[in-house]
Write a structure and sequence with these properties.
about 35% helix; Rossmann fold; two-stranded antiparallel sheet; about 350 residues; 8-stranded mixed beta sheet
Length: about 350
């Protein structure tokens, strides 16, 4: 007896044979040229086509865009948790079922060297909302058999991706006609405000109370020690989106004093203006035009994003906007199994 080489993939619990097709592309953005962080203009883009869908058919299909959480980069969708399918395998399982209407699923990268873009335009990071809406969506519609209409285009994500999935359709309802948010950042006084004194103390005790020292030491590391660098990086990354320093592109204004953690009210107000809970009453026309709004979060979410989802839901209810909210038993992490539920809901709502 001996080992021999065989064709194909190993199969579960390893790589599985996909019934659909995944195109792994590299795109180059004109809008991201000259971005203040000097981040790459070339980005990976994944497009999943269900079985039987290809660009030679006369039939056109809805599209669903999937965006990542903070510090996420596109190839993380290939990661496998123990005894679980990867995200791409989950998507393939979903759309290989006859019970789910076909849709083209597009995985978008909006990484920045501060950890993320929150999928909005900012002089602190770059025009990432325009990149998503005006470049990526146009590229996909030109290349694949999509229905290039907002009534057949949806957006979904988790955490910061869930934030983008709430905010971008409010600001660009001409592009997206349905949304799904898994534990999206919302209700900032619950999800962000408690971190400010902790970050202030951490900067004081480990980085001489200086953002310059923090970033100098971070650049010298060969790996990201989240316990040491994660908290400050996350807050600064958010600040670069919500309260950028207009006079110094690429820099941020922080909503608290480093020395004391004391709130800086005028900057905190800038953050609150980007809170989906506060934005919702100002964008009821856009939200009421959504064909589907799907919200969920774990009841034990460490960042209280279950409360954020409930608060966003409450604003929708006050405005008489139809939606669903599912609070399940779970935390912030380990909820990738929830993603197909949202994809199925969007695919059904966006089907022609």
């Amino acid at each position: 007896m001996g080992i021999r080489s065989v064709e194909g993939v190993a199969g579960p619990p390893w790589e599985r044979e996909l019934r659909g097709t995944v195109d792994k592309l590299v795109i180059e953005s004109e809008l991201l040229e000259g971005n203040p962080l000097g981040d790459p203009t070339k980005r990976p883009l994944y497009a999943y086509l269900p079985p039987g869908v290809n660009d030679s058919t006369d039939v056109r299909f809805p599209s669903i865009y999937v965006i990542l959480g903070f510090t996420g980069q596109l190839d993380m969708w290939l990661n496998r948790a123990p005894l679980e399918a990867t995200m791409l395998e989950r998507v393939d399982d979903l759309f290989s079922s006859e019970d789910v209407p076909p849709a083209i699923v597009v995985f978008v990268d909006a990484w920045t060297s501060y950890g993320g873009s929150q999928f909005i335009n900012s002089v602190g990071t770059g025009p990432y909302m325009d990149y998503l809406c005006d470049e990526v969506c146009t590229f996909v519609d030109d290349r694949y058999p999509t229905i290039s209409d907002r009534a057949h285009r949806g957006l979904t994500g988790k955490s910061s991706g869930g934030y983008g999935a709430m905010v971008v359709p409010m600001l660009r309802p001409d592009i997206f006609g349905a949304l799904a948010s898994h534990a999206g950042d919302a209700l900032f006084e619950a999800s962000n405000l408690p971190d400010f004194p902790r970050v202030a103390r951490h900067l004081r005790d480990h980085f001489d109370g200086s953002w310059d020292v923090f970033f100098e030491r971070l650049r010298g590391e060969d790996h990201l020690d989240w316990d040491r660098f994660g908290g400050p990086l996350e807050i600064y990354g958010y600040a670069s989106c919500y309260s950028p320093d207009e006079s110094r592109p690429g820099k941020a204004l922080l909503p608290f004093e480093i020395g004391t953690g004391r709130l800086v009210d005028e900057i905190w107000e800038k953050w609150l203006s980007w809170d989906p809970v506060r934005m919702a009453p100002l964008h009821t026309d856009a939200l009421s035009g959504m064909k589907r709004i799907y919200l969920d979060a774990g009841r034990s979410d460490e960042y209280f994003l279950d409360l954020g989802a409930q608060a966003f839901s409450d604003e929708l209810t006050k405005a008489g906007i139809e939606h669903t909210l599912d609070l399940f038993e779970g935390k912030h992490g380990g909820i990738q199994y929830r993603y197909p539920l949202a994809l199925k809901a969007l695919a059904e709502a966006l089907a022609p």
